[in-house]
Design goal:
It contains 1 helix and 2 strands. The chain has 63 residues and is of the alpha+beta class.
């Protein structure tokens, strides 16, 4: 991986459906299986470093 955070699991926030808190932050995460950045909604809790503010930022860090 270009950077370690890109190898972390898809960034979610602790809930099976991906949203466990009341925040609504459109975000991007690198999906190592698909080898591409994908969009998701971050709820504001938990998660990991595989979370980026834009597709461009994700691609610059991970692709």
């Amino acid at each position: 991986f270009k950077n370690p955070e890109c190898g972390e699991p898809h960034s979610l926030d602790g809930s099976p459906n991906g949203i466990s808190c009341r925040g609504y932050f459109p975000s991007w995460s690198y999906n190592p299986d698909a080898q591409q950045c994908v969009s998701f909604v971050y709820g504001g809790c938990g998660g990991n470093n595989n979370r980026f503010g834009s597709q461009n930022e994700c691609e610059e860090r991970c692709i």
